[in-house]
Amino acid sequence: MKRFLSGLLVAVSWYHISAQQLYMPRNIKKAYENGTRDISGAPGKNYWQNKGVYNVEVKVDADSKTVSGKETIAYSNNSPNNLNDLAIRFVNNLHKPQAPRSGFVSKDFLSSGLHIRSLTINGEKYTVNSDEWGTVEKVKLHSAIKAKSKAEIKIEWEYPLSVQSGREGQIDPETFYVAYSYPRISVYDDYNGWDMLPHSDRQEFYNDFNDYTFAISVPRNYVVWATGEFLNPDAVLQPEFLKRYKASLRSDKVIHIANEKEMKSGKVTRGNKWNIWKFRAGHIPDFCFAVSNHYVWDGSSVQLKTKRASVQAAYRSGAKDFEHYTEWMQYNLDWFSKNWPGVEYPYNVMTAVQGYADMEYPMMINDTSIPDDFQDARLTADHEIAHTYFPFYMGINETRYAYMDEGWATTLEYLIGIDENGEAKAKEFYKNFRVKRWISDPSAEQDQPIITMSTQVSGAGYGNNSYVKASLSYLALKDYLGDALFKKALHHYMNNWNGKHPIPWDYFNSMNTGSGKNLNWFFENWFYTNNYIDLKIKDVSQSNDLLRVNIENVGGFAVPFDAILSYTDNTTEKLHFSPALWEKDEKQTYLTVPVSKKIKSVTIDGGIFMDYTPEDNTKNL
């Protein structure tokens, strides 16, 4: 018992010391001091998060292009604090002319935004002028919501669908992607309190894990695809199409539930003037849906370890890539479950809708059609479905820390791409589409530290931090630890924070604990510096059967690379070196390689870790 306690104290002490090597903002330090987060990487003994149970009735008027609804939210304040304000978020106020945005929009993007008809909190009516609201607003409460108590919020509201479709809006005059469609309680968390960061259309989202029940009223002949379990197909579908839909839930083959002609015939849905489609989803960070009266509807399913998951696609007739989406998604869900991240797809359905966003939502994606490049189209689907794990399985704060989800989706897209397209094509695509623009551009904004809060960078700085450099850091760590240990550490992190809200320090500390290694030198190197990738061979010498190579790390990132040895007899040999090479000295390293033949030249090649100055990566003897 004494030996066990001693070991435990040593371990705790080691993690405490190692964690102090990484800079923490003052509010994050306070979370650790308060015990809501633990230095081991796990949620602390005092961890909490708030939750809403949303019961929503929503109506989509296809003629006026208006979404209206009423909702009841049972809100649990699990925090230790009394809440004197209630922050209400409505992302689609981004469409208001006066809303701050990250870029130019057309007139078709603009709308009048949210109109709140009524707001009641714990039975008390509130008068609010929603015309003056942005994407998030605080309402001063008449009576505080006490710590560890519940409140009931009722809201009636409406807003117009924008003509221009991006993440949501009118895909065409009779097809709508209805996302971020309901006022919600903003996140109140342990390190910032109320999340009051406005949505600007660049950084993405941060939501509580809530329970949702939606009743969606649409005109006859309109089909609804949505997040969650479809509760009443018998009540809204005609018998033949109900039969096909139910068959798709058990089928390995793609079933054409309804084609364009059938959709336009008006015989797919029940003949009521309005049909009410009901869906339910639990412990997820958002809910969305799409409606159309002419989109093709395909369906199938895939058997996973513990369940059979439905895959569905809704698209414009003739979209050649979307004709393959259902089978692609079958493969995708199976591959992610079995390989990387190697965690079973957590939901019962995944639906792809042809739109314009290339955007992920819980159990749904909204993708542009790329009919003339199936590799690109499929990788787009891969990327968006990979987001299932980050930020939905893990409740990432994408607004502040976009690299915690976009970097992982980019990595998973690359890894499944190797399987789908072969390693050479996958590497070429990753280099050209992801890395090349960053590493070729020496502008200062390219080299801002990844740890920089995502709302404080823009343009290339935002894109490269969130997608490129973050992904490269994860792949470099995979190379450093090896697949087995990397997956063990990754699963430790994911198990710690599934259904909760991790921040970067939870990732760092979880990976330390999960791998049993102090990786803070690596995290410091990749996340806290202005580094880039630039290796240089300074000197090469051969003495009999020993080759010595001096490599300078000009750019600073701890990257893996291959050393290609060319012999005078025109044969070559390739040796791989992991980032472990830079652990003791991040500025330079000396390779000492036993050889049996005369060396002609040495070349170092980082592969996807593209070098800023490749011309100094070869040295002749």
UniProtKB/TrEMBL annotation:
Segment forming the signal sequence: none
InterPro entries given in the database record: Peptidase_M1_dom, Peptidase_M4/M1_CTD_sf
Superkingdom, taxonomy of origin: Bacteria
SUPFAM superfamilies, per the entry: Metalloproteases ('zincins'), catalytic domain
Residue ranges of every copy of the Peptidase M1 membrane alanine aminopeptidase domain listed in the record: 367-526
Protein name, as recorded: Peptidase M1 membrane alanine aminopeptidase domain-containing protein
Lineage: Bacteria, Pseudomonadati, Bacteroidota, Flavobacteriia, Flavobacteriales
